[in-house]
Amino acid sequence: MIKSIAVMTSGGDSPGMNAASRAVVRTALFTGAKVWGINNGYHGLLEEDMFEMQSKNVGDIIQRGGTFLGTARCRRWQTPEGRMQGYKNLVDRGIQGLVVIGGDGSLRGAELLSQETGFPIVGLPGTIDNDVWGTDYTIGCDTAANTIIDAINKLRDTASAHRRAIVLEVMGRSSGWLAMTAGISGGAEYILVPEEEYDLDEIAKEMKASYDAGKRYIMIVVAEGAGSGKKIGQELWEKSGIDTRVSILGYVQRGGSPSVIDRVKASMLGESAALAILSGLSDIVFGFQKGNVVSINLHDAVTNKKHLDPDLIHLAKVLA
User: CA-CA distance, 163 to 247, in Å (whole number)?
Assistant: First the structure.
């Protein structure tokens, strides 16, 4: 049985990371194990910025967005020498296993550490993009989608008042899940995602016909990976003649107090991760499939690409 583990958050922050870290720490302490917190992701691991944690260290954080452990990019971790130094820093403190909470890049870095050193790793998918293969849910995606919905609701008011079209650019470089989910929930007329081709000439023609028929506003949600919101908005204005304004939501999508779903699911994943690593399991990621916690092979999670649900794509077209 492993008796000492560490937990870290890495990559882009996402609401619910604190809930996951809290669950890892308190589950491990409940079993009598030691837990170390690593500040600022892989950068903190290389700088030996870590501390032994007690239950009080994770008090009053479940409701907070971001990550109390901090996160940072780390180029040194991309080198074998950097990863070997991280391994040494863990072993020197008697740490026997590591829980990494982060997205594709963070989990890929964890897999490399495991491959090269055999060090036990369990991952949790922490990213608002919901783009980790093998799981229906990633920590923070629900809160981020609700943040976008709040923006859509407010933008609709001003769009209707001025009879404008609104282009809302949201996050999602390679995955359109956020745009698609929020767009459907917010009643957007058009949702542009990296996974689907679109024709701005056709969209502009449809927009003009809708306005000629008396429509007061049009909402277009664009994932950043599908194109620049500014360029799309300008082109639609020129092609349709409809006053079109652009709003880029930006980093506000990462912040905010996590939703109930993110708090509960992140906590469930954190407990599963702690119990797994303490029992000697390694090279797995915990996620959700059809509402149940499942384990996913770490290598599969970081080498396979998650595809946008075709049922969502179809639904968006039907309801537009």
Answer: 16
Q: Do 4-140+258-303 and 143-254 have matching folds? A: yes
Q: In order along the chain (320 residues), what is the average pLDDT of each group of 10 residues?
A: 95 97 98 98 97 97 97 94 98 98 96 97 98 97 98 96 97 96 97 97 97 96 97 97 97 97 98 98 97 98 96 94
Closest of 282, 170, 141 to residue 232, by C-alpha: 170
Residue 262: active-site member: no
Q: Taking the domains of the chain in order of start, what are their residue ranges?
A: 4-140+258-303, 143-254
Per annotation, catalytic residue among 13, 104, 129, 283:
129
Q: Which CATH superfamily is domain 143-254 in?
A: Phosphofructokinase domain (3.40.50.460)
**Residue range 4-140+258-303, CATH number:** 3.40.50.450
**Torsion angle, CA of 287/279/40/74, rounded to 10 degrees?**
-80
> CA 64 to CA 248: how far, in whole Å?
24
Q: What angle do CA 126, 132, 136 make, to 5 degrees?
A: 90
